[in-house]
Amino acid sequence: MSISLEDMQQEALKELSNIAFGAGGTALSQLLGRSANITMPSLQVVEAGELSSFFAVSDVLVKMGYSDGLSGKSLIIFPRDYAVFIGQIMMMQESSLESELSEMHLSALTEALNQVLGAGATAMSEMLNRNVGLVSPQVEHRLLTQEDFQELIGEEGAVLQVTFQMVVEGLPEGRLVQFWSLKLASEMASCLLGDMFPEPEEKSQPSIDNPLDNFNDMEKETLKEIGNISLGSSATTLSQLVSRRINITAPKLSYTSVEDIKHRYPAPCVIVEVSYSEGLIGKNVLIINAQDAVIIAQLMMMQEPDGKGEIDEISISAVSEAMNQMMGASATAMSDLFNRMINISPPRLEYKEIDTSTDREGGIFDIEEGLIQIAFKIEVEGLIDSEILQLIPLDFAKDMTSYLLGGYKNGEEMSPSKESEREKEVLGVEGEKEESSGEDSIVTSYPSDVGNIYSPLEMEGLELVKDITIELQGIVGKVKVPLREILKLGKGSVMEFDSYAGEPIDIYANGKLIARADIVAVSDFYGIRLREIITKQH
Prior knowledge:
Elements lengths: L6 H26 L3 E3 L3 E6 L12 E9 L4 E6 L1 H11 L12 H26 L4 E9 L4 H8 L4 E11 L5 E8 H12 L23 H26 L3 E3 L3 E5 L1 H7 L4 E10 L4 E7 H11 L12 H26 L4 E2 L3 E5 L18 E10 L3 E10 H11 L3 E2 L2 E2 L2 H12 L4 E5 L2 E5 L6 H4 L2 H10 L6 E4 L7 H5 L17 E5 L2 E11 L2 E9 L5
Helix pairs in contact: 1-3, 1-5, 2-3, 6-9, 6-10, 8-9
């Protein structure tokens, strides 16, 4: 199938690229603490035979994939000097372009690109009016080959080349080149321009290589919410332990493989394996980069946190203590979410390289089918601006979503017998039994509905007033400050409330406190999940 791009489509793609990389440039500038500018791009369709000029280039190759919102991949050629410079700044080294580009530089660059490309994906989501998720980029330093472009060329025999000029303070101007398949470019242009340029008839099917396609939208949102609640409560506990304000952003969900994780973390990192001993059957893993672990250890030991130093047994012990308490808080939050007791075994913590060949049998990296990746951006007041990954095996992820969605699996209602079997399998319990028509049945306790709370007479009275409008408000926090402090406020000012990140918010109905709830993300909007109803007894 031949695909061509009209002038209007190319202009739309140029603007999309400009906005995405503009957001990425802003994120890079904040990371480096110096100005970073990326110019308006130029676009051209390049035939397969004309790509040979890039094969002699020994820059940094960045392979990108999309986990949500778009189907396809792209390549970025990143200037070698910029890779060295960014790696040195990220590792707080003295900058010198004469240095060799080491694996540590590539690891630091990967961490920077995660945030830069993530900012770009957020900007694209807003412009395309759909959630765009990225697979963790693979970063390599080597000569490019024909094989690198083959998947992009496809049947069209050409690719779209997007070229930017890039200037970072203290560096000479560099060239950044991105390549898209024409099919992906046409899909994005169609999304931007609507019916003027409909998508090609041969619409791409979900890739069998991405098992996340087997999860429907509700299941994906449920997994995000599980991660959000468990990590949010953990962050609150860590904040109290180290007496620092901690912020964790809404999670990003994607599918990954052990090989992808190895590319993302080529250097040793801290791996925390959490196994459930009651209430759920399964395990998951948290991955924390070494520098962040050092800072957490220093805070736990009441040392000056500078992020310098090696990970030793004392550091491991300090981080283990923090993780014990954090995961305990997470288990408590999960118990509330699943409406039953959930306990974990003491977290197993290791500082090592990710290597399947050395992973013990049954370990989370000793699997072939891949993992669900939930990525959180974590900020520890003035010290850490990084990312934590939560990795969940596919079958465990599917089991948890099936249970929470109340008997629905893969969008179809389960029969009572299958639901009971699934509940016993997921939760690892026999369940309480009672006699009913001579047969044993599982009894599960769920919150009562309105009809069980009010009497028939009260329900009749409610019918008369149920159409009255009630204003609901969610209060994140409050603070009292002198008027002189208010007068000092300006753009960029920060005010500290009386509540910690991750704490439930107060819900008011016409000014009366009625409940407490967690903030959740519902598609592109904020929402709440009720944690506690305030009754007369309170």
